[in-house]
User: What shape does this take?
Amino acid sequence: MAAPAALDGDVIVVGGGIVGLSAARALAAAGARTVVVERQRVGAEASTAAAGMLAPQAEAEEGSPLLELALRARDHHSALAPALEAETGLTVDLAGRGLIELAFTAEDRRRLAARREWQVRRGLAVEALGPAEVREAEPNVNPEVCGGLYVPGDRCVDNVRLVRALAASAVARGASIVTGRPVTGLVVENGRVAGVTAAAEVLRAPVVINAMGAWAGLLAGDPLPPPVEPVRGHIVAFDMAPALLRHVVCSPRGYLVPRADGRTLAGSTTERAGFDKTVTAAGLRAVLAIALEIAPVLADVRVADSWAGLRPGTPDGLPVIGPGALPGLIHATGLYRNGILLGPLAGEIAAALARGLPPPVDLAPFAVTRFAAARR
Ligand code: GLY
Assistant: This one.
């Protein structure tokens, strides 16, 4: 059965998470007929399961190509949040305060000192804190803290609100979003992409953006699918008002993220358990241990909720952003632990490629072709 003509377009974006919505928003603004095809609901997977950290300095390693992309993506959020609010009236609660990373052991202190050293060399804002300074900045953290780092530029955003605002903006700009429609494969004609299949339907477009997150490797017909693997992360939400913390607070083992609504989110685990989002006792135990090490006061706080999400992980931990193995196919996936941070920028880069424009950053380290040899 052919799809109604209204669902055909200039660009089909597969996946209605932050990446896909950002791509659609940018494409629609440029006048492209854009259809987002989402197998469930908008933001149903990692985009809303995440805690919303925007933390390139806490997450990226020295010399990694991810660092430059992630720093750029952090700046991008600063411009995006007010733009979305002006367009949609929806706030995304981009935090005003930075991130504090804590040390509890000599090894933690060594790691923090090493990170501070290379970040200072790189010209990034980062400040060493003594235990008293940590406690002054965050009175609820564990009194056994033996040092810390203050990273003023790292922060958080409410990713659930971000999904809503991006979707509202994309639709207001003219994009179509089709939900409940699992895309199963590419339509390939004369050696190039001509659309996608969704069950018995064919949706036609000369350009397809794969923004399928952890499912990005499952698009039939792609000769070189991104080798993305789901990596489960548990989150526990504590209910407390007023909020327990002022900053995002991390240890080398995990993090606490304060939300504007008073909840504190704790994360996370890194589990290779396939496409299984089950909340397990072991996952909860690990996250509760992280949370109680950072802020023992949480022991008496009501656990409001818990869930698990699937990060799209790649073998080298770097994203897959750039042209696919067929003309007309573009990838924007594999954002792993930085999906909320990188998502809007990755989506906009994919949109630029879809329009035949040069990408604003060097995409060579993120090319899917880096995995070609492994498949031979
Ligand atoms: N960015 C934090 C996580 O993936 O758990």
